[in-house]
Specification:
12% helix; elongated; single chain
Amino acid sequence: MPRVQTKAVTFEVKRAVELESGLVLPPGFYTGTKTRTRVDSSGGVSWTRSQYKLEFTADQFASLKAQVQPNLISKKLDVTKFVRSGQLTVG
C-alpha cells in the first residue's frame, strides 16, 4: 500500500511569478507543502517526484488582487512546475 508523506515547506519567491492568469505572487516567503508517495516493489522502495502546493486563505488570495469567489474559505494551488523551473525555491 502506498504511503503518502507530506511536510510543511517554505517557498522563496525572488521575482514576481504569475501563477495563473491575473494572479501574481510578489517576492517574499510563503508556506506550503511538499508531498511524495512511497512505492514498494520487488526491486525495493522508491518515491514519486515531489509535488508542491501553496494554500491561501480567502483574505490572502484577495490581497494578491485575485478574483475571490463568494464563500471561498481557502484555495490550494499546485506550484510544482514553478519549483521545477526555479521560479520558486524551497527552503
